[in-house]
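Retro notes, structure queue

What went well: the backlog is down to a handful. What didn't: a couple of records were mislabeled last round, so from now on we paste the full input next to the output in the thread. Example, using Phosphatidate cytidylyltransferase, mitochondrial from Micromonas pusilla:
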Amino acid sequence: AAAARGMASTTPLSAVLEVVPEVEHAFGYGSGVFAQPQASASDDAHADAVRRASGDAASAPTRGTPTMVDYVFAVRSPLEWHAENMRRNPSHYAPHLRALGPAAVVAIADRVGVGVHFNTLVPWRGAADAGSTLGPGHATHYKYGVVRLDTLCDDLKEWRSLFLAGRMQKPVAAFEPDDDDARDKNARAAVAAATEEKYAKGFEIVDNLRLLREFDE
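Corresponding output:
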């Protein structure tokens, strides 16, 4: 596995790939991957709620300790991937989605969402032998979004929805071979957008000054 951006080792993160079907690209993000200097009261309340939901209410909460790690998996065929994942990990899906099947999962993601389906609050104890330790803290759960690889690359290059491209402009820990060209173009697009916004504000200031000058005259 390639070295993750912003992390010394990717081994804890990549352990999740032993549980799910093969993916083309994966990355982790958020406070469960990158240590946060301080945790808010709402973060601690959320952590306690997750512990209680998992039947681990006796565990003493630790300020700043993440309880859930966030992933995105890019795959060639979401339909085939979800079919295999439902066979391996049926508990990852809501009961109604298990009943409807993988085709419904993909259809909902494509037609209602932005092409990404998330399974959330999956107990980390199910991720191979990784235990409860992950990244900079102790995670009890993880969630993962599954997206078609072409959809990910298209959003990176063209900013179709900015759902994934926007996420990947923030720190992410990639641990599978990724589309470097797409990432580079995404970064260039971010700079271009920031530059355009900067110039737009500059033109607005110039126009306001021109109007003030004309008013004075």
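Agreed that this is the format going forward. Reviewer comment attached to the example: Confidence is low (pLDDT under 50) at residues 1-11, 53-66, 126-137.
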